[in-house]
Amino acid sequence: MTEALTETRPIRLKGRSFLTLVLTPELPLDGWLQRLDDLAARSAGFFLRRPVVLDIDGLDIDRPTLKELLGALDKRSVRIMGIEGARASLLGFDMPPAMAGGRPAPDFEAPDAESAAEAQAGKGAAAASAHHPDPQVARAIPSIIVNQPVRSGQSVSFPEGDVTIIGSVASGAEVVAGGSIHVYGALRGRAMAGSMGNSSARIFCRKLEAELLAIDGYYKTAEDMEPQLRGRAVQLWLEGDAIRAETLI
Amino acid sequence: MGKVIVVTSGKGGVGKTTSSAALGAALALRGDKVVVVDFDVGLRNLDLVMGAERRVVYDLVNVIQGDAKLSQALIRDKRVETLYLLPASQTRDKDNLTEEGVERVIGALRKAFDWVICDSPAGIERGATLAMRHADVAVVVTNPEVSSVRDSDRIIGLLDAKTAKAERGERVEKHLLLTRYDPNRAERGDMLKVDDVLEILSIPLLGIIPESMDVLRASNVGAPVTLADSRSAPAVAYLDAVRRLTGETVPITIPGEKRSLLGKIFGRRAA
Lengths: 249, 271
Prior knowledge:
Number of helices of chain B: 14
Distance between the termini of chain B: 26 Å
Structural class of chain A: alpha/beta
Number of helices of chain A: 4
Shape of chain B: globular
Number of domains of chain A: 2
Oligomer: heterodimer
Largest interface: A-B, 14 and 14 residues
Mean pLDDT of chain A: 81
Low-confidence stretches of chain A: 114-135
Strand content of chain B: 15-25%
Distance between the termini of chain A: 50 Å
Strand content of chain A: 25-35%
Strand order of the largest sheet of chain B: 3-4-2-5-1-6-7-8
Number of strands of chain B: 8
Helix content of chain B: 40-55%
CATH architecture of the largest domain in chain A: 3 Solenoid
C-alpha cells in the first residue's frame, strides 16, 4: 500500500489541428448528391478514413432536411465529423457537433477519371501523391508584435505563432502563443508558449519575474523557479519534459 | 469646452475621494470653474469631505432619471465660489446610472465648467467604467504597495480599452498620483520605491502625496485638504500636482528627501 493516492503529474491539455475535407452542399440536394455519387464512382474510397466537415453556411434548409442529408451521406459511407455555419437551432444532439474558427487551406484535388484509371492499373501511387501535396511543407510561421505593455487582467493570445511584446507583462496578465514568446521588458505575469503542442517553442524575457511559465503544456510556477534567475534576462526551453532556463548575456 | 478628469484606482481606500476634493479645490483656487462629480452611488463620501453633506437636495441619479435639473443638483462651495459639487445618491445603487444619462450629464457639465472631475468608485464594474467613460484625462491614484499597483495597472488597461476616447482610437492622457507615501516606512524599506512603481505602471508621475494627519484633520472639518491648510505638506503636494496638470514644469520631490528628482523622474517618463 505504498502507492501514492494522488498523482502529482498534471493532465496535459494539448491542442492539435487537422486538415479536413469540407463538403459544401448545394440546392437542390438531389442534384448535388448525384454529382457526389459521380465523384465517388470515379474513385472508390475517396471519402474513406478522411475527416469530413459539412459547410452549410447560407444553405436554406430546415432541420428534417439536414437530417435527411446526413442520412444520405451516411449511406454513401461519408462520415461527417462536424457541421460548420449552422444555426444552433438546426443542430440536434443526435447530429455531429457545430464547428467554427476554421481557416482556409489549399483545396483538395478531386480525383479525375484518368488518375482513377491509373490507380486501378496499379501505378497511381506517384501520381496520387503529386495530387495531394503536403500542406504543412515550408510554411512561414506567422507572428505578431504588441507595441505596448500588457496590463494586469489583459490577455494576449496568438495560437498561430510567435508573440513579441515591446514593454512589460504585468502581474495578473497573460500571454499565450502557439510559438515562442519574446518580452522586451519585465515578465511579471504568465507566459505560455507552444500552446498548440510545439515543444520547440521558447520564452525569452529581459527581466524574469513571472508568476507562471509554460511550454507545450509543461509548466513551472514562480515557486519552482531557481531564485538566481529572478530579475535576470532569461531564455527558457523544453528538454524532454523539463523546462530548462539560462540567463542571456 | 472643459476637460473631464477621472480620478480612479481600482482599489478602495487609496485616496480617490480625498484627491478629487483636493485637486478640485486647488483648480478652483486658480479661478477656474470646477465641478466635482461623485460617482460612488450608494456609498457617497465626497459631500462629507467637501463639507456639503447638509445641503444635498438632489443628486446625480435624480438628474440622470430626469427628476431634477442639473442646476438644482449642483452645490456651490461656501469657501471658493467657482467650486461646485454634484453629489451621488446614497439610497440608490450603481444600476441607476445609465450610459446615455451619464453621457448627457457629462456633456452638459463640460459646456458649463472648465474642469469636470469624476470621483470614481472602487472596483472595475459599472460605476467605475461609467465614471471613466467620457474622460479626457485620468488621474490614477496609487499607494506604494503591490496590491494597489496591480489594481492600478488593471485600471490603466481599462482606460485604454473601455473609454469613449479609446473606442474612437484616441488615448486618454494618464497621470500617476502616488498617495499615502510614508517617508519613515520608505526609509525602513517596507514600501515600494517610487522608481519601482513608475517602472511597473509606466505612466508619467503627477505628484507624490505624503501620508499625513492633516488629511484626516481636513476631512473631519469637511474641507478639501488644499483649503483646510494650504501650507501643510499634503496641500503643497496637491497644489504642485495641479500646476503640473495644467502644463507647468514643477520639480518633483520625494517626501523625506531633500534632493530634487526633476531629472530622474522626468527623464524616465514613458507612454
